């Protein structure tokens, strides 16, 4: 290929044939990227050269004093030697937080890990913090009565918190950890709370945060009077009450240890995750007032004279007939999970929750 480029291709004393040959040679040189074993003469910044000796395509630098190796055409790959000292330097591979880099996810200080990183085999205590644990929160309440209620999360839960919605400073919620399920001769360990209020218009609430929650189906249980339809107690959590309470639905089919089937009925509601998100957004209040519990959206708030000061946002759609959840849900962890090494794979126990006899399944509706 031609590597010769003639700048002076025309003059009044030139022969036409000579000038035309020079112009043709120039086009061949440009077309072939000055393809050849030796660097072309008459160098200018920005010109290309196909170095056939080293099998590299090169570009003349801006100062016109050196060649930049761009592409290894023998192996069809780019040349990175010219940028290793700058763009591939350790400071850019592992930069400080806020600086983009090759091994940084986004612009934070979080680094991508190699597939054989030892941290994927064994997770040390230093890598597990409370903020990184998957936790959920559920709550229970009673209205003007006392009841034995199973807490969400069971043995996986932290100590519960309580409150009352009564505005008088002397009205308080009565709460204590209850043993068993409220029945004589209970043979299963259950995490229950004995919850109540001294006054008929007041409501007592208890909430518990717990770990290893599943969240496949959201559960709201309502205990109410068969005749008056007055709500006596409620439970809400992204897990069935049997989760963390033995993991056996036949033993903990509902959260109400004080349930009387002769005078009371149990309603089960399973709002979608989208519906729950909307409901929880409605629970968030301003900086000068406490947030509501999700169950407070389903009940009226009354003063000590029995007058409604805040009405319920949702109620039960009595005409609805939804299906009982039929998908397997997480009910607990295997008995050997505590003996596994940190980071070892644990497969939770999943079961289809059987529908208890007499339990009604309904939908929520906005009032």
SSE topology sketch:
Blueprint: H1 16-31, E1 48-51, E2 56-60, E3 67-72, E4 77-78, H2 90-93, E5 135-143, E6 146-150, E7 161-164, E8 173-178, E9 192-197, E10 203-211, E11 219-225, E12 231-237, E13 264-269, H3 273-283, E14 301-302, E15 308-310, E16 314-317, E17 329-332, E18 349-351, E19 360-366
Parallel strand pairs: 13-19
Antiparallel strand pairs: 1-2, 2-3, 3-4, 5-10, 5-12, 6-9, 7-10, 8-9, 11-12, 11-13, 14-15, 16-19, 17-18
Walkthrough of the structure:
With 367 residues, the protein is mostly beta strands. The chain folds into two domains: 16-78, no CATH class; 130-366, no CATH class. It contains three helices and 19 strands. The strands form five sheets. Strands 7-10-5-12-11-13-19-16 form an eight-stranded mixed sheet, with no helix packed on it. The radius of gyration is 37 Å and the shape is elongated.
Radius of gyration: 37 Å
The main β sheet shows up as: 8 strands, mixed
Secondary-structure element order, N to C: HEEEEHEEEEEEEEEHEEEEEE
What proportion strand?
Answer: 25-35%
User: What structural category characterises the helix and strand content?
Assistant: mainly beta
Which of globular, elongated, flat, extended, rod-shaped describes the shape? elongated
């Amino acid at each position: 290929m031609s590597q010769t480029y003639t700048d002076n291709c025309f003059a009044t004393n030139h022969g036409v044939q000579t000038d035309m040959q020079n112009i043709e040679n120039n086009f061949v040189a440009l077309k072939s990227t000055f393809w050849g074993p030796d660097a072309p003469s008459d160098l200018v910044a920005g010109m290309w050269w196909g170095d056939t000796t080293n099998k590299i395509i090169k570009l003349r630098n801006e100062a016109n004093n050196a060649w930049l190796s761009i592409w290894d055409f023998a192996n069809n790959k780019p040349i990175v030697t010219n940028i290793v000292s700058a763009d591939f330097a350790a400071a850019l591979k592992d930069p400080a937080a806020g600086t983009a880099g090759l091994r940084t996810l986004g612009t934070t200080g979080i680094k991508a890990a190699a597939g054989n990183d030892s941290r994927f085999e064994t997770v040390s205590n230093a890598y597990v913090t409370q903020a990184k644990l998957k936790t959920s929160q559920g709550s229970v309440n009673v209205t003007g009565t006392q009841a034995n209620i199973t807490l969400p999360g069971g043995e996986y839960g932290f100590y519960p918190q309580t409150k009352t919605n009564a505005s008088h400073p002397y009205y308080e919620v009565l709460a204590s950890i209850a043993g068993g399920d409220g029945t004589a001769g209970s043979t299963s360990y259950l995490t229950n709370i004995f919850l109540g209020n001294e006054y008929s218009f007041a409501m007592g609430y208890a909430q518990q945060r717990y770990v290893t929650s599943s969240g496949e189906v959201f559960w709201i249980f309502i205990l109410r009077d068969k005749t008056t339809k007055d709500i006596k107690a409620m439970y809400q959590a992204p897990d069935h009450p049997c989760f963390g309470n033995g993991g056996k639905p036949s033993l903990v089919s509902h959260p109400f240890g004080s349930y009387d089937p002769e005078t009371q009925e149990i309603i089960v509601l399973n709002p979608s995750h989208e519906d729950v998100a909307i409901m929880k957004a409605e629970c968030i209040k301003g900086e000068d007032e406490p947030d509501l519990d999700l169950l407070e959206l389903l009940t009226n708030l009354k003063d000590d004279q029995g007058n409604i000061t805040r009405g319920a946002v949702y109620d039960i759609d009595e005409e609805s007939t939804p299906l009982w959840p039929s998908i397997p849900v997480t009910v607990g962890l295997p008995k050997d999970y505590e003996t596994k090494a940190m980071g070892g794979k644990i497969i939770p126990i999943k079961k289809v929750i059987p529908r208890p006899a007499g339990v009604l399944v309904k939908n929520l509706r906005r009032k």
